[in-house]
Amino acid sequence: MSFTDRLDRAREDLFPLDFRNGRFTADICTDEAYFDKLVAQMYDEVFGGRTSHFTVPAERQKDREILGAEFDTLHQERILVRDSDGEVAAWMKGEMEDPSTFYLRTAGIRPDFRNKGIANALYPQIFQYLRGLGYERVSSQHHPNNGPAMMLQLSLGFIVEGMNVDERWGPQVKMVRFLHEDRLREFERRFGLPEYSWRRG
Predict the structure, then answer these.
(1) Sign of the C-alpha dihedral computed for residues 30, 100, 130 and 81 taken in this order
(2) Distance from C-alpha of 201 to C-alpha of 148, rounded to nearest angstrom
(3) Is 183 exposed, middle or buried (0-12, 13-18, 19+ CB in 10 A)?
(4) Rounded to the nearest 10 degrees, what angle do helices 118-132 and 3-14 cross at?
(5) pTM for the model
């Protein structure tokens, strides 16, 4: 079975995903321009206006477009979450980081929809979906001051993998969630870490 076949089957099996007793629905968005426009409209609302980042000068923009087109051939997911009235409540976007890792590039929940259990209900379904596609790990990166996102992910089984400093986004804490128990065991073995019962939920 090809990856495309596996992807089509997994999407058909899971989406649209109704959760929180039918109060929310998550679905794949295949229209990248539409998704990007929606997220741009909500970004400042979700992240408090932190949208500025380094912009490539005009003379290098063509290179960005060429490499961007190549990057677009990777497996990507764009998911929109809507409430029962059809209003967009949250989004999630990511892509293949390497042959075993799916990178959650960005996710956000609009302020009016926070504390309604969206993330806690959605993430496990997404993990199951990505595992079904053959991924072994899920990674994400967050600004060190983004405590709510990191606390949420820690509660969902992510661990801190490291930290980097990036001229585009500033300092970033990298987190990873293993989709198979043997991966977590290997991480613990390699780093000689003790096993804590709270991580076994």
Answers:
(1) negative
(2) 20
(3) middle
(4) 150
(5) 0.89
